[in-house]
Design goal:
The complex is a heterodimer of chains A (425) and B (165). By secondary structure, chain A is α/β, with parallel strands linked by helices. Chain A contains nine helices and 21 strands. The chains are: A alpha/beta (425), B mainly alpha (165). Chains A and B meet through helix 1, helix 2 and strand 6 of A and helix 3, helix 4, strand 1, helix 5 and helix 6 of B.
Chain lengths: 425, 165
């Protein structure tokens, strides 16, 4: 409009100065054009916008269709350009995020596009609408509230059974050896024969050694367990390289473990320990799986000076003597806290994505300017330090899964937990 | 969109031909050359989707037309050239707007409606301009001055009321 107004001003002034009617006449088409534009400019704009997602929670990399609808609730005809800014972290796969439409009273326009994103919570903001007259001279910008949130949750792998042996189990039948005699599969011990015991369970060899007594084989009951998963989201421990963050591996591992424990019928809770403490209270089944995946989808690393060390870990969130799985790259200060947890009676398993091999892998491919021999020595020293931490944990009875993230998690955990944990607690 | 593009180029070519021809008939070859140069700048701007250059082109052609009228060029072809330049500018902006998005609801209807209205405005504007160039009124200086001030005041209010885009 600046060009047009400037030209009209210039022609009128020039015509008046030159006392030339033809020059002023030349301004008339421009004035008529401006007048037409003014007459057609929308008054009392009433628009409403809606954005719908085909799914509000998807697994990593799965596409989601977004439908944007703009409705004219006013009484004048509106020409509008609609822009739907994609939430950061999402990638447009198909379709378009902007449109132009002329909407009569009650009219609407809808367009679709497909996005895909990495794990995280992605928030869609306002839909931006630019209403213009037919000539595009007068603009009214609107930001219409149509907020939506898409949570991209980590993909949980299916694992075969994970052998855990917490000191205390729950009262319901399940897959975890309960350290209590009763009906089961595995031999637990001998006891005196009681009336009603099945004949086939009498241990004849032990009974033969005593004249007046019979002994019965006692089997170990198998029950459900309480499992608490702690995900370490501290900035200090989660290495980040240009190739990605180690935290993503921790999240994937936690999702897989939660899915596996829940599918066996156990009660699972989770704590994400980072810039804040996010607590998912213990629960069973598919609903709990969704809760955990949603929390993991939203999880991100962060720094909080108060939570820099594990001292403030809310261990009371998990029942006494239950199984605790700590998913963390580990720092040297973590071992005493985990040792204390063992001492309090928890069965502790540490699943540790290896930060040294993760960073070393990147260093190999990147040109850092450091002497390769110096780098190699540094990596070796860190590996020794890490081995010492892991050995210290194993010595106090912590099950340790050291995960070089270049290997698949299912294979690593299968190899690491191939043997049943001992009875010793 | 293709038809709109052709129509835009045809309008621009018409405006250039009329204005350059009017100058050439009067022997103003340098000004005819200037008209062609401004047209080339405009065409370049359209190709590069640089709307600022298109607007500069419109301003250049209009000022050359005004200067020609002051120099005594025939009014009818120059006024027609001005209207064609305005139509070409409008269509170039429409093309730019439509080209910036992939989804256009009822594109053909939208373009047809726009062109119909534009044609009406251009015809009306041309008729008013021709009438203004033919009709002669004797007004006192004070009346002309008052009318001029009124026009300037109205335009100033308009420009203040709506922020230019």
């Amino acid at each position: 409009m600046t060009t047009l107004l400037g030209l009209i001003f210039a022609l009128l002034l020039f015509g008046l100065a030159a006392l030339n009617g033809n020059v002023i006449a030349l301004a008339m088409p421009f004035v008529a054009y401006l007048g037409w534009s003014m007459l057609r400019r929308p008054e009392r704009i009433r628009l409403s916008a809606a954005r719908s997602l085909s799914l509000d929670r998807v697994s990593n990399g799965r596409p989601v269709e977004v439908t944007v609808t703009l409705r004219n609730e006013g009484e004048s005809v509106v020409e509008a350009r609609i822009d739907d800014p994609i939430a950061p972290g999402l990638e447009l796969v198909e379709g378009t995020t902007s449109a132009i439409a002329t909407l009569g009273p009650g009219g609407h326009v809808a367009f679709r596009y497909t996005v895909r994103g990495q794990r995280g919570e992605h928030r869609f903001r306002d839909i931006l609408v630019d209403v213009t007259d037919s000539a595009g001279l007068f603009h009214t910008g609107l930001a219409l509230d149509a907020r939506a949130t898409l949570v991209v949750v980590p993909t949980a792998q299916r694992l075969r059974r994970i052998n855990i042996r917490p000191p205390r189990t729950r009262g319901f039948a399940g897959p975890i050896p309960a350290r209590v005699g009763g009906s089961g599969i595995d031999f637990f011990g001998l006891r005196e024969y009681q009336v009603g015991d099945r004949l086939r369970r009498i241990n004849w060899r032990a009974s033969a050694r005593h004249e007046q007594e019979l002994f019965t084989n006692d089997l170990e009951q198998e029950r459900l367990a309480d499992v608490g998963i702690i995900v370490d989201a501290r900035d200090e421990t989660n290495t980040r390289t240009p190739n990605g963050s180690l935290f993503e591996h921790s999240v994937a591992a936690a999702a897989t473990l939660a899915d596996t424990f829940l599918s066996e019928g156990n009660r699972v809770g989770m704590v994400i320990y980072g810039s804040a403490i996010v607590n998912v209270f213990p629960g069973y089944g598919r609903v709990q799986k969704m809760r955990i995946l949603r929390a993991l989808g939203r999880a991100s690393t962060g720094h909080n000076e108060a939570l820099r060390h594990l001292d403030r870990l809310p261990t009371r969130a998990f029942p006494a003597q239950s199984q605790v799985v700590f998913v963390s790259p580990l720092s040297r200060d973590d071992a005493p806290v985990l040792t204390r947890m063992r001492a309090r009676g928890y069965a502790v398993m540490v699943v540790s994505p290896d930060p040294v091999s993760f960073e070393a892998l990147w260093l190999k491919s990147a040109s850092t300017g450091f002497d390769p021999a110096f780098q190699q020595t540094a990596v070796r020293m860190l590996q020794v330090e890490r081995r010492l931490i892991l050995r210290q944990l194993r010595q106090v009875g912590v099950q340790v899964v050291n995960w070089d993230v270049t290997h698949p998690f299912d294979q690593v955990i299968r190899d690491a937990l191939a043997q049943r944990p001992s009875h010793r607690h | 969109m293709k038809h709109l593009s052709i129509l835009t180029r045809a309008s621009l070519a018409g405006a250039l031909a009329l204005l350059a021809g009017a100058y050439a008939l009067m022997g103003g070859w340098a000004f005819a050359g200037a008209v062609v140069a401004v047209g080339a700048l405009w065409a370049f701007g359209m190709r590069r989707r640089a709307m600022a250059l298109v607007s500069v082109g419109l301003a250049g052609l209009t000022l050359l037309a005004a200067f020609g009228l002051a120099q005594g060029l025939s009014a009818a072809p120059v006024l027609l050239a001005g209207v064609l330049a305005l139509a070409a500018w409008d269509m170039a902006r429409l093309l730019h707007r439509l080209g910036s998005v992939e989804h256009i609801e009822n594109r053909d209807v939208l373009i047809r409606q726009h062109l119909t209205q534009l044609a009406g405005v251009c015809v009306a504007g041309l008729l008013i301009a021709l009438a203004a160039s033919i009709i002669r009124l004797n007004l006192s200086f004070a009346a002309v001055f008052a009318l001029g001030l009124l026009a300037l005041w109205a335009l100033s209010r308009l420009s203040r009321k709506r922020l230019p885009h």
